[in-house]
Amino acid sequence: MTTKSRFRIMLAALLGLMPLMASPGMAADGAGLYRGKCAMCHGPAGAGRPGTFPPLAGRVGQIAGNPDGKAYLAAVLVNGLHGPITVDGQSYKGFMPSFRALSDEDIAAVLAYVSTLGNSAAPAGISAQDVASVRAAPMDAAAVQAKRAALQTAHVIP
To answer: Which residues are the signal sequence here (predicted)?
Structure first.
């Protein structure tokens, strides 16, 4: 067998595997990640827990509709969120840990899934590249809180 023949066989084999590598089954499972990492605090349907963990359902999709909102959501998952917040007039004093250990693809998948909770809209278009951009500029708790306050003032966060 010639080198050229071996090359053709290897190329054909690799091309045959490409559909498997790109299949949806190989993509990050936002729903599964949410159930395993988020539902314990925010609830299976994203309703939250009064006074401790805010609701996500019906809110994340709205926030993700704005580029600064997308960046904020990614910043919360990458850096965590510490300190009191107010959501729909209710105060929350919970603590959101950083999920920095998750890949950019996993964080994007979780945010896309959560953006569908409580509404029938299509998932928010938060990409792994959006998450990578946020990850490249780490923020401390005060910076994440300041970003939230600015977005609330601008009515990006309802």
So the answer is: 1-27
